[in-house]
Automatic annotation (TrEMBL):
Signal sequence region: none
Organism: Roseomonas acroporae
Key words of the record: ATP-binding, Nucleotide-binding, Transport
GO cellular component: ATP-binding cassette (ABC) transporter complex
Protein name: ABC transporter ATP-binding protein
Length: 261
C-alpha cells in the first residue's frame, strides 16, 4: 500500500521476528507521588527493528526510555534484555544507549573527542580507540569532520555527532527521545530518513534496534517498522504502520493518527 507517504517497509528477513525478543517489558509500573506514569506496561522490541513510540505529551514515553536505559527504576514489573533481567544493572553496563540531544555535546572538545569520550572512560586507547571512533563517524557520514568543534558544524551535523557518540558503544538497542524535535521541518524529514537508513545498516551489521520517541504521527508511520501508541502510561496499540493506519484499535488511536478511520 502507499497511503503512507515515504514509507518503505523493511524486508521481513531483516527483522528478528523469530525467537526471543531483544527487549521485553513486563507489567512495568512507575509512580511519581499520586501519579501513575507507567501503568503495567508490556512491550516487546525485536532484534533489528525500528520501533516508534508515539504518544501525546505526558503519556510516559520519556519515563519508559529512562527505565530501559537504567537512569530510573520501575516500582514494579521487569525489563529483560535477551532474557537477562536488567534490574540493578547500571546504565553503562547495559547494552543499551540513549542518544541525547545535540546540545549536550562538549563545546570545547573536537568531534573526535566528543565521540571518543565514553570509550576513553572505559579505558579504550590508541589505535583501538581511533578505529572505533572512525567507524562511528563513517556510519553517520562525518568522516572528514573529526577535528572540528561543535560550533563549526550545522545543526544536522551536530545531531549526527550525537548519534556517533551513541553508536561508538555498539549498543544492541539505541533509544532516541524526540531526536528530530529541535530541527526545522525540511531538515527534520531528511534527517528522519537518514536515521532510518542508518538503522537498516546497523541492523544488518549487528542487529541493532532503535526505539524512537515522537509525538509526530507522520514521522512514526513513515520511519518505523512497528509503532506503539501510548496513552496514560499504557500501550493502547502496537502494530505495523499499515495496520495502525487501516485498523486503529480505538477511537483514541484513530484520532491520534489524524482520523484515518
Ligand atoms: P512524555 O515523554 O510522554 O511527554 P514523561 O514520561 O516525560 O512523558 O512524563 C509523564 C508524566 O510523568 C508527566 O506528567 C510528568 O510530569 C511526570 N513525571 C515524569 N518524571 C517525573 C519525575 N521525576 N517526578 C515527578 N513527575 C514526573
Ligand atoms: Mg518526553
Amino acid at each position: 500500500m502507499d497511503a503512507i507517504p515515504g514509507r518503505h517497509p523493511a524486508p521481513a528477513a531483516a527483522l528478528g521476528t523469530e525467537g526471543p525478543p531483544l527487549l521485553r517489558a513486563e507489567a512495568l509500573t512507575r509512580r511519581f507521588g499520586a501519579a501513575t506514569v507507567l501503568d503495567g506496561l508490556d512491550l516487546e522490541i525485536r532484534h533489528g527493528e525500528f520501533f516508534a513510540l508515539l504518544g501525546g505529551s505526558g503519556s510516559g514515553k520519556s519515563t519508559l526510555l529512562r527505565l530501559i536505559a537504567g537512569f530510573d527504576a520501575p516500582d514494579s514489573g521487569r525489563l529483560l534484555l535477551e532474557g537477562r533481567d536488567l534490574a540493578g544493572l547500571p546504565p553503562q553496563h547495559r547494552p543499551v544507549n540513549m542518544m541525547f540531544q545535540a546540545y549536550a555535546l562538549f563545546p570545547h572538545l573536537s568531534v573526535f573527542d566528543n565521540v571518543a569520550y565514553g570509550l576513553r572512560r572505559e579505558g579504550v586507547r590508541g589505535a583501538a580507540l581511533a578505529r572505533r571512533v572512525d567507524e562511528a563517524l563513517a556510519l553517520v557520514g562525518l568522516e572528514g569532520l573529526a577535528r572540528r568543534r561543535p560550533h563549526a558544524l550545522s545543526g544536522g551535523q551536530r545531531q549526527r555527532v550525537a548519534l556517533a557518540r551513541s553508536l561508538v558503544k555498539r549498543p544492541r538497542l539505541l533509544l532516541l527521545d524526540e531526536p528530530l524535535g529541535a530541527l526545522d521541518a525540511g531538515l527534520r524529514e531528511r534527517t528522519g530518513f537518514e536515521l532510518r537508513a542508518l538503522q537498516r545498516r546497523l541492523a544488518e551489521a549487528q542487529g541493532t534496534a532503535f526505539v524512537m520517541v515522537t509525538h509526530d504521527q507522520e514521522e512514526a508511520l513513515s520511519l518505523a517498522d512497528r509503532v506503539g501508541v501510548m496513552q496514560g502510561g499504557r500501550l493502547v496499540q502496537v502494530d505495523t504502520p499499515e495496520a495502525l493506519y487501516e485498523r486503529p484499535a480505538t477511537r483514541f488511536v484513530a484520532g491520534f493518527l489524524g482520523g484515518a478511520n
